[in-house]
Predict the structure.
Amino acid sequence: MTAAAVPAPGVERADEPVLLRPARPGEGAALFDTTVQSVRALAAGRYSPEQIAGWMGTRSPAYYEDIIARGRTVVAEAGGEVVGFVDAEPGEVTRLFLKPGAAGQGLGARLLAQGIAAARQGHDGPITVEATLNAEGFYARHGFVRVRTGFFSHGLGGDPIEVVVMERPAEAGEQGQRPRP
Ligand SMILES: CC(C)(COP(=O)(O)OP(=O)(O)OC[C@H]1O[C@@H](n2cnc3c(N)ncnc32)[C@H](O)[C@@H]1OP(=O)(O)O)[C@@H](O)C(=O)NCCC(=O)NCCS
């Protein structure tokens, strides 16, 4: 799949200061740094210090360059800086991380919509995600339902990271949002 398969990131919200666009070659370090900052600040409450310290395992910026080359990664850019990104494979949203200063402003929801759209390319069934424990509520808010617990399978080395495997039915609405309780 090529970068062109990612559907028009950010175009519908081009008036906003945070732009969504396909990741570019050379941004592997930015994705690496975003993941490190995101995990340390936003996931620390649900994982041990050892898990947080070892989260990246043997991953490097080059690992993220390989992911970018697959053409399904969308970044959020603010002030010329990458502040978040989402990545997908057919049928799965595989990574979604925001820098702490970018969280809580609706950006995660915007990136998730892009990730779901990318996961739908060449795939008709449900969309899955391996949600970190801190993010289960976020995904539930967007139509994902808990299937089982497990361990993150897209890392490289490091301690096992508990996740909640969640599934979003194919028939979920475009916004994927369930009614408020
Ligand atoms: C999870 C994450 C992507 C959410 O991004 P965000 O920008 O903070 O979320 P948003 O501001 O877009 O929130 C969208 C909605 O989800 C809700 N929400 C966000 N985080 C939530 C959580 N942890 N639990 C329950 N609801 C949550 C928001 O209240 C909001 O609801 P609303 O539509 O009623 O206003 C972000 O916090 C993050 O990067 N976390 C650390 C990395 C991580 O765990 N990523 C997931 C890996 S699978």
